[in-house]
Give the backbone structure.
Amino acid sequence: MSMSNREHGFAGIAAVEQSAVYALRAAKEFATADTPERFPPDVPVDWQELTLVVEVDVAGEHVWGTATYQGVVRKQQVSQLRFDADGFEVLRAFAGTGDRLTIEHDGKVVLVALPQPIQRAEQVRVAIDFDTRQPRAGFYFVLPDADHPDRPAHAWTQGQDEDSKFWFPCHDAPNHKLRMAVIVTVPAGMVSFSNGILRNIHDAADAGKRIYDWQIGRPIPTYLLTLVVGPFVEIIQQTEPVPVSYAVLPGRQEDGERSFGRTAEMVALYERLTGVGYPYEKYSQVAVSEFVFGGMENASMTTQTDLTLHDARAHLDFSSEPLVSHELAHQWFGDLVTCRSWSHGWLNEGFATYFEQLWQEHANGPDEFDYARMGAQRAYFAEDSGRYRRTIVTNRYDEPIDVFDAHLYEKGGAVLHMLRRKLGDTTFFGAIGAYLRAYADGVVETPDLRRAMEEFAGVDLGRFFSQWVEVGKGHPEIKVTGAWDSDTRQYRLTLEQTQDTSGAPIFAVDVAVDLRFDNGTSELRNLTLDRKQQSFWLQFSEQPKLVQVDARGDLLATWDLGLPEPQLRALLADGTAIAVRISAAHALGARPSTLNLTALRTALGPHQPWMVQAEVARALGKIGTAVAYDALAAALHLPHPKARRAVREALSRFATPQCAELLVSGLATGDESVLVEAETARSLGATRASTAFVALVAALDRASWNETVRVGVLDGLALLQDPRGIEVAQGYLAKHYPTLLRCAAIRCLCQFVAEPARVVDILRLWTADTSFRFAFNMASSLGNLGDHRAAGVLQTIAARAIDGRVKKRAHESLATLRAGLGAGKQVDGLRGDVDALRNQLRDMADRVDQADQLRRAAGK
């Protein structure tokens, strides 16, 4: 399951100046003393088969039918059968003999009384008739309305975490699996998609309706059962060795090919890496509207958001492949082998995140792989420092969705990469295959993975799993210093763990040091750091040219490179991997001498990898001097759109008329990339120039994929803080606008901290809109106002929320307000202070730079 779209690049997802908000928020505990411990429910009956016979009335938001279960008793004896059934009508139940059974339904759970107790190992069969109208979750109906008269009517289910119980009776937890068949009657003009193979299609008795008979042969948990109904167009990509297809709503076929066209290659890669064949009868993807996640890995049939479908222009620097590869990986990790409880959800999501990155390695090479991992690490670091720090495995949470965060996804993926580096490719992937084969069709916990890896590799991994997954929190923060001793011919490398050990332990980690010499030779030293500070004396015949510590960013750690500046410049220019070059760029950016600025400017040149260009641009932006500005202005038209976007982003730090004029011109001219164009708008707003408002509003007439440009404009208006922006943003709250644009309007309004009463009054009118993305952005953004009047709106949102993510964000924002840590006027004041300090520092740096140049000239 893809939670948001993380690296996937959906326009407008990132909150404006979120770092400023985080700076005012103390990192909170993930769980409080009142947070309950969660354990898997009992499984008194081993249900082995479910046959779900239903009819779906899409226009009426209605589904009804019969769920028939067959299984074997596990307990000593059972006298009643329990099923989760929340918010719908349970009509009647029948035994396998056809006798009617007594039921008791409290609105959340149905108990079916048996005529006499059934003993262990005896067979049991029960059929339950149910009727579900307008379910609150689990089954979603997307319909045309006054605001969207042309929207195709369709419906889709979403079971994870525990939402299947909202539309049919089931054991709604991941700790039990069973085989399933779905026989569904659909309206005229519509088709259906579900798990497994399509055994039959035939006409129903009612004219125009059709009956689809689906069956999946391997057992899966009920959260992975899926059903999609609508006027979809299916494209068959291949029929063997694994049937692969995708389906989209009419008119999106070309966009679908751009998004899903390489799926079959991904299947082949994952089969090769794991040594385990694709486990199900087919693999299909269906793109639906208003989906509440990025994607959902239902066994054999993934539901994808239609937001990932994109046109040729967006394809310049946006790809669906991270999302597609992530969801496909779940067919092995999460579907074939499933976490027994959500506490161990990283066994699903950590693996999918890492295999998503492995696809990047295969398809786009080591640089893209390393940069994808770097981005994932940064997402985890931001959550760890800005929201909370927790162990990856925890059973203390309010709702299952709470644990689906950057610790579960990104940190989980990073842990697997470190395990790969520790064991080596052959052993790591061999052990993964052994793990999959050992637990195929079963449920697992973290110790199961550890045992499988240990048995295959012949090594003990107790310390590794303890410090990274089960007990330890956080990560090492390492300062690196080094110097060459010409007398002893030794390089002294000192590594110091600087993290607060009250919140994270002293880690025991392997650190690879790659050394390069002028004569073309190299040496790799593998060091063990297991104390707070350790010095290593490395003997060589000559001084190393490059000292590359963790050159590819394999270790989940933050690095403070305190190496001499000549060594940092050498790393930036000649480092053998982008991670070490990027680390050097940021280290040099913190020491903006003339030589260092020259080195950064050179690394921004047209023939450098775009990732290095992007990070060098960000480093120059932080420097903020006239020389840094000139370097960025000269790089405005770099060939790669992602590098151009980073240059625009870096220019947001220069609140000067010269920069504003450059960005006004750039916005008027536009760019081949919609994402670059949107970033230009954001940066223009950040300049606070008097000419920015008119230029930004003029760009609101530009249509683009997922409203990317208009979202960028609204973000720019939020940064500009011109009060006229409030009225502009308010206009885009209307329901006829696309969801992403409405969400950008919310975020924009909540940045106007100087007028909290006006903003609260505007947003109070929209609390009845409980659609996921809209409510989530309301819950996430209102806390930024730092005004007590926002509390009532947040309480209303939390009370009305259906999705647990909305509740959690609303509660976090409320806690922020109550603790007096809301960004509010503090952020507004900070912005002014930061702008003033930035200008002072820029002037000082320019004077220092001039003095440095004069000294160098005098010394020639």
Q: What stands out?
A: Residues 479-555+557-623 form a domain with the Immunoglobulin-like fold (CATH 2.60.40.1840). The radius of gyration is 28 Å. The longest strand covers residues 45-57.
